[in-house]
Amino acid sequence: MTALAFLKAPPRFLFFTGKGGVGKTSVACATAIRLANAGQRVLLVSTDPASNVGQVLGVVIGNTITPIPQVPGLSALEIDPEHAASAYRERIIAPVRDLLPAVEITLMTEQLSGSCTTEVASFNEFTDLLVNSDLTAGYHHIIFDTAPTGHTIRLLQLPGSWTDFLNEGKGDASCLGPLAGLEKQRETYAHAVDALKDPALTRMVLVSRAQKSSLAEAARTVEELATIDIACRNLVINGVLPVTEESDSGRDELTHAIRSRETAAMAQMPAVLAALTTDIIDLKVTNMMGVDALVGLLAEGEGARDGGVAGEASVMKNIDDTPDAPHAPLHDIIDQLEADGHGLIMCMGKGGVGKTTVAAAIAVALAHRGHDVTLTTTDPAAHLSDTLQGEVPSLTVTRIDPETATRMYRERVMKGRGSRLDAIGQAALWEDLQSPCTTEVAVFQQFSRAVHESANKFVIVDTAPTGHTLLLLDAAGSYHRDVVRQMGDSMAFITPLMRLQDPVLTKVVVVTLAEPTPVMEAAELQDDLKRAGITPFAWVVNNSLAAAGPSSPFLRQRAANELAEIARVESLAPRLAIIPLLAEEPIGEARLTALGR
Length: 597
Description:
alpha/beta; 2 domains; 15 strands; Rossmann fold; eight-stranded mixed sheet
């Protein structure tokens, strides 16, 4: 048998990255288990704000290194952004708490409560694991299960960004603490950059699905990593429909359609990916939950593509009478969304669940009904244009692009506040605006404009994967608190958070798949939103095999696995729509229209 290429002579650090929902966590966990079972001491680290490593391994894992009892030699750690930010704030504020007036301490706390602080605090813990030998000296390998692509690229760029920021002496570091605090990290950041660039120390493994959009995102990741001198040489295409005698008999139209799509996507993958060493991991009949399932994930990746499928035959017995999923068409939800004639509709959920497709289907349906609609995205890895494939009358498509937003913000500040300064002051202000924190503020301001536009029209927002979206909503909360503090009772005002909390103005649609991890994360998202005073309007279960009614035993078993998750969603959702997995991908106006009928 031929060993999986990405596991050959593994270096000390392995990063698994890629588009949300492609199975990075499963592959990372399976790799960690395999190396530990081979006698290595392994530390598995999640840098994803929406981490589910603990759920996959069946162990409660927190912000401390936790041994995995079922796997001797394996420990895990989930970097908790909120915990990291809290500890970071305390390190900055504690030395001056008794020296400054209470009002100054309150101001510092507010300044250190934004999403930029959270990101940098998490990054400090991340870099410590790369360069602090005291923390990781006992481990042969450190495996990183990273966040979805857009967030990961920001995280990987930060070492270079902050090293440049410190080297050039730039910026107002008010949201990060005193510059001296960053200065102490200069050497750590520089070593982190070196470790990430050294192939003898670090292997970057891209994980993708055999889907055009997923492979295109993987190609963008390779190119973005190359701009910061990080080479990626390994690609894992995960969850490919396995080849079996019954599945190739031609009796199941859905099986044939899925395989045809996957084969075409892999044959036409971008050249930058075709040049990488590629491993293919088959889709399994069961969900990747628990150590036993994870051990089997990589076992089948060796040898023939059909290896191991027969071994799952016992699992696929007695499923001829798989119950149907409840009938819950998307158009029923759209009818209710339309009732107020305008408003903000936010499609939220774990990366890779199909938020873009659902957002586009809702937008197209409302535009066809004669409404003025704007469809926009806050997702760093957005692909709205690929989904729509053309213009739709009455539908305006926009994107909140971080680079454009930052440039416009800098120009606006220089024309405003900068016009009142002399040349020296303008130079200092321009340096302040080069801080990486500026992008967070700029993106939030554009998001706020989209929120306000929804008072007179429909604005559909295809949001970023859950962790990044919650940081955005946290920025809305920080902005809200700041306005309340400054305005007091002097005059009436409406902040973006107040609009998000108004069920007439804002309707959140939670999108998920009928699988344990996406449903769990969607439930946690709903809880987080409710704590912020935002109650979701509806849930959409996307790409459901149970709703599609496949005939092949393999897909019927996968469909049967969904029913418990759909029942859980029914118990959580105020309103529910279920979209079946389709033989043809829902891209382009005609197919998106069909989804909303």
